[in-house]
Write a structure and sequence with these properties.
By secondary structure, this protein is mainly beta. The protein folds into two domains: 23-60, no CATH class; 83-248, Trefoil (Acidic Fibroblast Growth Factor, subunit A), CATH 2.80.10. It is built from one helix and 16 strands. Strand 9 and strand 10 form a beta hairpin. It is globular, with a radius of gyration of 20 Å.
Length: 248
């Protein structure tokens, strides 16, 4: 009987410590889930809020992430990492403010999904989401800015789209997140109505190519558009428009 109990406990321990599947989250600020990737993958930091199990990466022993004090709970899309810091703003509302644009995808499977932050109007990852929670954006001096203060509030409160310098997903993608400090890696621009990013050290075949991956997370695609798309991702270009209200 004692031997059977020990065997049962060992099986339970094995189940509890099952490895995280490839391309799934394994760490980040406020992450409380599993941190152990499979033996053929490593937990790679994408940004402060998100680490990911990537095949072929080194597999160091995972270190516990620092935990913020008194985190605030927020609803999230399945699989989307969150920030638990104080929201940067209350949001500009559902009517487009002067000088800003809605920015959305125009191809399946994300047709008319809108760029926004998660949680809304706060620091955290850039995602594509529903038109009812669409963010408002502009490109100013090479910075992608999101308006997060209420209508008429002066000075305006902004968040900045920040590009990770660490490559992820097939070593051919760069994650995007929102920060209260300006981006220092590369330059954003409008190419007609499409959103582009470039860096002098990177020769991109298509400056407008993006990936939208698990959890609706947005990445810059450094490779060719519609070629060797990673599992769990979709190719996208994203475009601005300026109707008074976002629509689906």
């Amino acid at each position: 009987m004692q031997l059977l109990s020990l065997v049962g406990l060992a099986l339970l321990a094995t189940t509890a410590s099952a490895a995280i599947p490839d391309w799934q989250q394994c760490g980040g600020t406020s992450w409380t889930g599993e941190t152990q990737c499979s033996s053929t993958a490593g937990c790679v930091k994408v940004n402060d809020y998100y680490s990911q199990c990537q095949p072929g990466a080194a597999s160091p022993d995972p270190q516990p992430e620092p935990q913020p004090q008194d985190p605030e709970a927020s609803a999230v899309l399945p699989g989307t990492p969150t920030s638990t810091g104080t929201p940067a703003g209350t949001g500009p509302g559902t009517e487009l403010q002067s000088g800003y644009y809605w920015v959305r995808a125009v191809a399946a499977p994300n047709f008319h999904k809108y760029v926004q932050s998660k949680p809304l109007y706060a620091t955290g990852p850039a995602v594509l989401g529903d038109y009812t929670t669409a963010g408002q954006f502009q490109v100013v001096s090479g910075q992608l800015v999101q308006l997060v203060s209420g209508p008429g509030v002066k000075p305006e409160k902004l968040l900045y789209g920040v590009v990770s310098e660490t490559r992820s997903i097939n070593n051919n993608s760069l994650a995007i997140s929102w920060s209260e400090t300006q981006n220092t890696y590369g330059t954003f621009a409008w190419g007609g109505d499409d959103l582009q990013w470039s860096h002098p050290s990177i020769n991109r075949p298509n400056k407008s190519a993006w990936y939208v991956c698990t959890g609706q997370l947005m990445y810059i695609n450094l490779g060719n558009y519609l070629y060797q798309t990673p599992s769990g991702c979709a190719d996208q270009t994203i475009h601005y428009y300026n109707d008074k209200k976002a629509n689906n």
